[in-house]
Amino acid sequence: MLSTGPARGSAVARPQSQQIFAFVAEDGAFSFSSTDLLDLHKKTRVPTVLDWTIRDEKCDQAKENETTYACKDNRYCYNPDNGPGYRCNCSEGYEGNPYLPHDIDECEVDHPCNVTHTCQNLPGSYSCSCPCQLGMKVIAKKMAQAAVPYLAQSSNFLRLMLP
Q1: Closest CA relative to residue 53, chosen from 80, 24, 89
Q2: Blockwise average pLDDT, block size 10, the chain, 163 residues
Q3: What Rg, from alpha-carbon coordinates, does the chain have?
Q4: Helix, strand, coil shares of the chain as percentages rounded to 5?
Q5: Checking DSSP bridges between strand 125-129 and strand 75-78, what pairing results, if any?
Q6: pLDDT tens profile 128-146
Q7: Per DSSP, which regions of 79-149 are E strands?
Q8: Which residue from 111, 163, 120 is spatially nearest to 142, judged by alpha carbons?
Q9: What pLDDT is attached to residue 1?
Q10: Is-contact 143 163, C-beta < 8 A?
């Protein structure tokens, strides 16, 4: 169930008795009755189908109008197989609603860096860096224990370390 309210930062608020409620359901799957208002939290299950396709144009045509094109920053466009129009999808490193994508914090979610490195989340990506206080020998020892070849960098050279 969706509850509508004032826009974020708005000073206008509706009293509880004047709030507007809505929900999404497949056409014909729900018949409204005034008794439904007696228990707004009644758990009736209905199928929901969302079609986020933007009709009338394919990706190539839509890209020509920068004002109305929906698949801008951190999104990419594709043409669905089920009819006319185009859809957006989140670019790599982003998730959620493809029309309002959010950056994935890879450092929190996947912990992609080696234990000896510091992970920094970047927009749509991440970076692993070696703390300066760690010497090459410490890194080489930890990586050799993991039995994984890797590139180690010191201030003046790059070295391939093999276990």
Answers
A1: 80
A2: 48 60 76 77 74 90 94 95 92 93 94 90 92 56 50 50 48
A3: 26
A4: 15, 25, 60
A5: unpaired
A6: 998 765 555 455 545 555 5
A7: 87-90, 94-95, 102-103, 118-122, 125-129
A8: 163
A9: 42
A10: yes
Domain ranges of the chain: 2-38, 59-102, 106-161
Residue 29's closest CA among 44, 14, 12? 44
So what's the pLDDT on residue 163? 47
Distance CA 121, CA 19 (A): 39
Q: Distance between CA atoms of 44 and 35, rounded to whole angstroms?
A: 13
What sign does the dihedral 118-103-76-97 (CA atoms) show? Answer: positive
Q: Model confidence over 64-82: pLDDT tens digits?
A: 999 999 999 999 999 999 8
Separation between Cα atoms, residue 156 and residue 97, nearest integer Å: 44
Cα–Cα distance measured from residue 104 to residue 39, given in angstroms and rounded to the nearest whole number? 38
